[in-house]
Structures are given as structure tokens and as C-alpha cells.
Amino acid sequence: MKILVAVKRVADPDNLNKIKLSGQGAVDVSALEPKANPYDEYALETALRLTENGTNPKQRLGEVTVVTLAPKTSEQMLRAMLGTGADRAIRVDAADDELDGGLVARALKAIVDSEKPDLVLLGYQQTEHESCEVGAMLAEQLGWPQATFAGSIKSEADKALVVGREVDGATAFVRLSLPGVVTVIDKIVHPKSVQSSTTPPTHAYQDGVRFAALMAIMAAKKKPLIETKLSDLVPEPSKRALRVRYTRAVLAPARSAGVKVKTVKELVAKLRTEAKVL
Amino acid sequence: MSRTLVVAELQGEVVRNATYSAITLAKRLNGPFAIVAFGSRSRAAAEALVSYGAEKVLIVDDAAVDQYVCERYAPSIATITRNGGFDTVVVTATAFGKDLAPRLAARLDAGYAADISAVEVTDGKRTYCRPIYAGNAYAWLEIDSPIHVVSVRQTEFAPAQPSGAKSTVDVVPLAPSEPAGARIEFIRAEVGKSERPDLGEARVVVSGGRALKEQFSQVLEPLADALGAAIGASRAACDAGFAPPELQVGQTGRTVAPQLYFAIGISGAIQHIAGMKGSKVIVAINKDPDAPIFQIADYGLVQDLFVAVPELVKELRG
Ligand SMILES: Cc1cc2nc3c(=O)[nH]c(=O)nc-3n(C[C@H](O)[C@H](O)[C@H](O)COP(=O)(O)OP(=O)(O)OC[C@H]3O[C@@H](n4cnc5c(N)ncnc54)[C@H](O)[C@@H]3O)c2cc1C
Ligand SMILES: Nc1ncnc2c1ncn2[C@@H]1O[C@H](COP(=O)(O)O)[C@@H](O)[C@H]1O
């Protein structure tokens, strides 16, 4: 199976309470460390699991390409992902403010048209704008089926995937005939969430994503990292025009710490008479 | 003037409450609006939907879409939008709407304002507001396309109230199936069964974290019973198997905004707070006085939860 994984670098998702506002009324994340969008790391882990037999992960049974639309500084993230196990990387040179979800999807479509993967995996959302849109937009552009919010995937001979979609307290199982688009949530990296066509159902992975071995990181330096231009992928200027423009931002009013109560009695009294919520 | 189409989210023939928040937004965009519902239960659902001031309720009364499949819905909604001259399509910002809206937007070459918390209209120009960065900022955006697709945060828009005059009901056909629709098949749904109120709509939510261990249910059920509350959980509690996954509250779980939220044995990670900081009153019970959850809690109790919670139950019942 040939899989394309869309990845984006984001400001450290564990420290988003440290964001600031720039003078222009935009969000300033420069104080935060750039990291891979965690859901994209899960998507990469999913891709690797789908292209191996879990009992013998050294033998690759498919090809995984990671792609990002981002400035050159994101190469570090791509190199790390090559070290983790991706076979190739593509970087489309673009700055965040040149992009909206629709344009990311149009550029990814152009890459799919030339790469011809069987499956495109994405995070269900990125942790900055959290628009939760690119996967479904890409699927529509391609005329492919989509399975968003995937918490489990079972491959049926690499021809179809049975996907467990986590939807507001329920799990909806769908069968998607490849090629298709799947977006993943955190549950996808649980030990038994992904079953490739060769992995036995009894196999349990270690919880979470795998880490690159030092040797692999060195070897990854030789793996291909291809660079392209947005205007080559989406040549018509009208299709590069943004449909969505962010004009300003404000910081959310901080919820201030309230009071500490000493006893359960005091808590109940306050909830009854002060907050009046009981 | 604008013409808006609201997509109803049904569960069987019941209209999910989030739909009424979407209708509230439609009413704020000056101009007429219509509502569309899908499936053979849409006729029954229309009986409720006709009372909200819509010009029309459109029903795609076809058993082929009794189960939601995005690839079947999106083409139909796109056709209805174009034929009906609608310039705005509004959906719920639930798993349903967040799956549907972007596909629809791509099909209509429309800008998509996802998960909005407010809208401003000045001189006919609209700006949409939405939370970003795990709710730590709000951003305003404009859309530069003739059609707008919008998904509406249920917690930020009060449900519309019935307004008397009845809308007419029109039957519209399902758009022909396309290759994408033929390549996806709904198999089955597993719904966590619970007698408790739905997490997204409960007035009180009692959430537990990793600290609850195997006693998660044993400790929290009596408290939830005493309060008539829904039970939620942190990801750590779900991942460890102490709580079923559908209870997860936070960035990857449910977004809740009850009148009263209890965070019990939960440290208060950013991803958890993103899903509950809209709660009116937050209570934290944690034995670590420096736990980050206390920075956003209205009432904090520094105690061992295994002592505090049973005492709380007794106090509430007493
Ligand atoms: C991409 C991503 C998405 C995520 N999405 C979510 C999400 O949707 N929801 C979510 O919740 N998390 C999410 N997380 C995880 C999040 O970062 C935290 O790891 C998680 O919320 C921690 O859960 P916890 O508070 O239960 O556990 P811990 O952080 O381990 O906290 C346990 C707390 O219990 C207290 N405690 C221990 N014993 C007792 C006792 N006897 N009495 C009282 N207090 C006690 C401790 O002091 C501690 O504060 C996500 C993480 C990532 C990377
Ligand atoms: N600039 C980008 N480059 C590559 N992939 C992206 C980019 N932006 C978003 N994506 C992908 O789309 C997913 C959903 O992002 P979003 O719809 O923006 O919340 C992400 O998890 C990525 O997989």
C-alpha cells in the first residue's frame, strides 16, 4: 500500500496558554517551541502500521510519503519523520498566511494526482486553528470517500478499510474502498487500533507513537526530501486566492482562579448560596 | 439580504438540540432561511422543524440516507443550495457537521467558518468569530466567496424557540449517487448506553481523571446520581480503561459547557481545559494544591478525592 501523510508544524500544543498578541492584533506564538501537530504524528504512526506486519516491523510492505506546506524551517520535522520510518518527504514551500484549508486541499490534490497513493492520512485537525477541514475538503476535490475521526482501522487486503469513526459518544463503523481519505484522532495509536492486512489480530502495539532510533535518524539523511512550489501545484492565481482571511484576534479572557474551600461542607454551602447552581 | 439553509441533524426522528443553535444563527443573519432534513424519518422530524420561522422545511425523504453518509448528503445539499439561491449554509459543529461542512464547502468552492462562537454583521459585511489555540484566543475571519459554509458551536448559541407560524414542507429528491458515495458503506454504530443525560447537554457534569483508578465508577456514580449529572473523564482515565472512551472531555473528546463542572482527580492539562472551560462554575477536587486545574476553578478543594467525594455525596443527599 502506498500512503501519503499530510503533516503540519504547530506551536507547542502543551503550552498554548502562553500565546501572546502581536501589535497587529494577530496571535504571536514565537515564544512557543515548534512541534509536529500531534494528530499528524498519529497519522504517520497509522501509516507505518498499515504498511508492515506488526510482528515484523523491520520489513516494509509499502511506501509512506509525508508532505507539508510550510517554510524551510519545517524540514527538521520532515527529517525527524523520515527517521521515524517515512520513506520520502515532500515540502511545498509556503507560509501559513498564504494558505487556507481549501488551498491546502487543492495543493494536496495536485500531489495526490502525481503520487497516486492508495490512501491519504491526515490528522483530524491541527492544534492551531483547529478548523478540522482539510481532510474532507481533499476527499471532495479528489472525488474519493472519506472517513474522519478514525479511532480504529482494519485493512481488508489493502483494497478496503473498515474504519471506526468516533462521533459524539458513538462509534460508527464504515467500509471505505480505496483509494480514500482518512483523518485520525488520538485513539488510533492504542495498541490494537490499527491492523494491516498482514498483522495478526492478536498483535498489540506499544501504546502511542514509535520513536526514531539513532541509526535510523542517521540513515534518514539519505532519504529523499523533495521541494516544490505552491504555484507549480496550483498554477491558476484564482485558485490560490484565499476564501478565508483572518482579520484579527483577541486573547480569551483568562478564567481567574476562584477561591479554595477548606471542607466539603463549605463547598456545598458556596455552591448553594453563592454560585446558586445546586 | 441573505438566504440561509440550515442542515438539521437528526437522531432517528428526533432533531438534535445542536440544530436549534444553528437555527439561532440563521435568524441572526438578516433574511429568510430554510431547513433541510434527510432520511425517511425527515417527515416526522419536519413536524418539529416547521415551528421555527423557516420559510420552508425541505425533506429529502429517502431511505437511502437513513444512515448519515457525507458522500450522499453533500451533493444533495450543494444542489439545493444552488437551486434555491442560498448564499449561506449552516450546520451544527458536532461530529456530524464537522464531517459534512468542509466537504460541502469544497464542493461549493465556498469559504468555511468552522465552529463559530459569534458573528458580527456591519454594513452587510460579515465577520465570524471562532476559538483557536485550544480556546486560548478568539479570531475573527472574513469569507471571500459568494457562498459561506458555517458550523455553529452549540455551547455559544442558545437554542431557537418555536415561533408559531408554520413553515411549508417541500419534498426534494436525493442527488444521484456518485463514485465516492458508492465506495463508502455504513456498517453499524455502537452507542455507549447510558441512562444519564448526554454529556454535551447536561446541566451538571462530573468528570474524573487518572487518580480515580479502577474505582472510577464506584466513586463517581453516586455523585452523578445525587446531582442528576452526566459523567465525563480525562483522556488519561479513558486511555487507562478506567472510563469508556466516549466519556472523554477535551480537545479530542466532547466540548461541554454545563452550569456546573466537577474536575475530580484531574490535573488540568490544556487539552482537557479546551473542552470544559466554557462551564459556568468549575469545581476542582485535587490533592495537589499546585495542580493547574485550580487556576481556572471557581471553587477548589485540596483533599484526597476518595475521602472528599463520598462526603460530598452524603452532604448533597443530607
Ligand atoms: C494530542 C493530544 C490530545 C489530547 N486530548 C485530550 C482530551 O481531549 N482530553 C483530556 O482530558 N486530555 C487530553 N490529552 C491529554 C492531556 O494532555 C493530559 O495528559 C490528560 O488530560 C491528563 O489526565 P488526568 O488529569 O486525568 O491525569 P494526570 O495529569 O495524571 O492528573 C491526575 C491528577 O490527579 C491528582 N490526584 C492523584 N491522586 C489523587 C487523590 N487521591 N485525590 C485527589 N487528587 C488526586 C493528581 O494530583 C493529578 O493532578 C491530550 C493530549 C494530547 C497530546
Ligand atoms: N500546511 C499544511 N501542510 C500539510 N498538511 C496540512 C497543512 N494544514 C493542515 N494539514 C493537514 O490537515 C489536517 C487537518 O488540519 P485542519 O483542517 O487545518 O485542522 C492536519 O492534521 C494535517 O494533516
Topology (elements, then pairings):
The complex is a heterodimer of chains A (278) and B (318).
Chain A: E1 2-6, E2 9-11, E3 20-21, E4 27-28, E5 34-36, H1 38-50, E6 63-70, H2 75-84, E7 88-93, H3 101-115, E8 119-123, H4 134-142, E9 146-156, E10 160-167, E11 170-177, E12 180-184, E13 194-195, H5 214-220, E14 225-229, H6 230-233, H7 237-240, E15 244-251, E16 259-261, H8 264-274
Parallel strand pairs in A: 1-6, 1-8, 6-7, 7-14, 8-12, 9-12, 9-13
Antiparallel strand pairs in A: 2-5, 3-4, 9-10, 10-11
Helix pairs in contact in A: 2-5, 3-4
Chain B: E1 4-7, E2 10-11, E3 14-15, H1 18-28, E4 33-38, H2 42-49, E5 56-60, H3 70-83, E6 88-92, H4 95-107, E7 111-116, E8 118-122, E9 125-132, E10 137-143, E11 148-152, E12 168-171, H5 179-182, E13 184-191, E14 204-208, H6 216-227, E15 230-233, H7 235-239, E16 260-264, H8 270-273, E17 281-286, E18 299-302, H9 305-317
Parallel strand pairs in B: 1-4, 1-6, 4-5, 5-12, 6-11, 7-11, 14-15, 14-16, 16-17, 17-18
Antiparallel strand pairs in B: 2-3, 8-9, 9-10
Helix pairs in contact in B: 3-4, 6-9
Bound molecules: flavin-adenine dinucleotide and adenosine monophosphate.
Could you explain the architecture of this structure?
The complex is a heterodimer of chains A (278) and B (318). Chain A is α/β, with parallel strands linked by helices and 278 residues long. In chain A, 26% of the residues lie in helices and 30% in strands. Chain A has a single domain, classed as Rossmann fold, CATH 3.40.50.620. Chain B is an alpha/beta fold and 318 residues long. Chain B folds into two domains: 4-182, 3-Layer(aba) Sandwich (Rossmann fold), CATH 3.40.50.620; 204-317, Rossmann fold, CATH 3.40.50. Chain B has nine helices and 18 strands. A seven-stranded parallel sheet of chain B has the order 7-11-6-1-4-5-12, with helices on both faces. A five-stranded parallel sheet of chain B has the order 15-14-16-17-18. In chain B, strands 8-9-10 form a three-stranded antiparallel sheet, with no helix packed on it. The chains are: A alpha/beta (278), B alpha/beta (318). At the A-B interface, α3, α4, β9, β10 and β11 of A face α3, α4, β7, β9 and β10 of B. β15 of chain A pairs antiparallel with β10 of chain B, so a sheet runs across the interface. Bound molecules: flavin-adenine dinucleotide and adenosine monophosphate (AMP). Residues 6-8, 37, 39-40, 68-70, 99, 101, 104, 122-123, 125-126, 129-135 of chain A line the site of adenosine monophosphate (AMP).
